[in-house]
């Protein structure tokens, strides 16, 4: 049901000069449904939801004052209240940026801001990545940005942090941006011939189903990969059957009737955790430094 690997979470990549260094953009957080009664039997049929959890933005960072940012030929007037993306630094990015900070806070893609910037990117494609962002740093961790740099530049000069501000900012934690954003463990299908039960993880984001192949969660030694479908095989393992550690949850299928009605026992709820859905067939948006 799950495969483990000992490696960092490659959720995003940042390009540093001519080479790209792997980093992590702070993932969202899975927030379990606390109304679930652990140890209670649940009767379900195909199509029913067995367990669910909300999805929260782990950190939402706001710039409290406006700032004019300008490096090389890129400039932006970033308003107060602008939301910045939290990016986790690593040893290589610290060396290149020239900061010992653990976190960067990056603004919008400059190319996406206007057709002028998009044209500028075309003119200077050899000097910059396709995505360029201003990223801010709070070196002394006093709640104010004191440096910034140009993510997406290939010239090391523009990747080195430069003085700015100080610019106050604020961080909100576990922000649910859409009430319908959730992860569900669903009773997908019953095979009347084999009595196999198929379960499926589903994700809804911004009112739409999010396609994915597996969900990545961090561990102390690396990461776990939870694939979106799992199934019983009563010919080999008769009921009751246990699905262990499905995003932290332990689910027991105790029995199933000929019409597909199954008795589930929730032994453990989903665990609160950072997580990232992943699909090789989906084109992700990368931040590059």
Q: Could you explain how this protein is built, in words?
A:
The structure is a single chain. The chain is mainly β and 289 residues long. It has helices spanning 91-97, 110-113, 115-123, 156-159, and strands at residues 2-5, 12-16, 19-25, 28-32, 41-44, 49-63, 67-71, 74-78, 83-88, 103-106, 128-137, 144-153, 162-175, 182-190, 197-205, 208-209, 214-218, 223-227, 229-231, 241-246, 249-256, 262-268, 273-278. It folds into 2 domains: 27-57 and 176-278, no CATH class; 59-175, no CATH class. It contains 4 helices and 23 strands. It has a 6-stranded antiparallel beta barrel with strand order 6-9-10-11-12-13. A 4-stranded antiparallel β-sheet has the order 5-22-21-20, with no helix packed on it. A two-stranded antiparallel ribbon has the order 7-8. A hairpin with a 2-residue loop joins strand 15 (197-205) and strand 16. The model is unreliable at 1-14 and 282-287 (pLDDT under 50).
Provide a quick synopsis of the model.
The chain has helices at 91-97, 110-113, 115-123, 156-159; strands at residues 2-5, 12-16, 19-25, 28-32, 41-44, 49-63, 67-71, 74-78, 83-88, 103-106, 128-137, 144-153, 162-175, 182-190, 197-205, 208-209, 214-218, 223-227, 229-231, 241-246, 249-256, 262-268, 273-278.
């Amino acid at each position: 049901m799950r495969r483990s690997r000992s490696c960092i979470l490659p959720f995003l990549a940042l390009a540093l000069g001519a080479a790209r260094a792997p980093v992590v953009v702070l993932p969202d957080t899975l927030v379990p449904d606390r109304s679930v009664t652990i140890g209670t039997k649940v009767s379900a049929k195909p199509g029913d939801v067995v367990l669910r959890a909300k999805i929260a933005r782990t950190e939402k960072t706001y710039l409290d004052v406006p700032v004019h940012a300008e490096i090389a030929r890129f400039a932006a007037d970033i308003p107060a209240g602008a939301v910045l993306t939290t990016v986790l630094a690593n040893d290589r990015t610290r060396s290149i940026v020239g900061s010992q900070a653990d976190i960067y806070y990056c603004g919008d893609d400059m190319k996406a801001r206007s057709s002028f910037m998009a044209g500028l990117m075309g003119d200077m494609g050899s000097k910059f990545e396709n995505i360029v962002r201003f990223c801010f740093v709070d070196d002394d961790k006093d709640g104010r940005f004191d440096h910034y740099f140009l993510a997406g530049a290939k010239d090391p000069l523009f990747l080195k942090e430069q003085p700015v501000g100080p610019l106050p900012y604020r961080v909100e934690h576990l922000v649910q941006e859409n009430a319908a954003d959730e992860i569900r463990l669903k009773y997908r299908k019953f095979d009347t011939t084999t009595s196999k039960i198929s379960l499926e993880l589903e994700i809804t984001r911004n009112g739409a189903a999010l396609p994915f192949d597996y969900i990545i969660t961090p561990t102390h030694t690396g990461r776990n990969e939870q694939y979106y479908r799992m199934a019983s095989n009563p010919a080999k393992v008769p009921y009751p059957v246990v699905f262990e550690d499905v995003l932290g949850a332990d689910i027991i299928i105790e029995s199933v009737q000929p019409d597909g009605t199954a008795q589930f026992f929730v032994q453990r709820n989903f665990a609160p955790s950072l997580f990232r859905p992943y699909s090789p067939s989906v084109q992700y948006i990368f931040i590059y430094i």
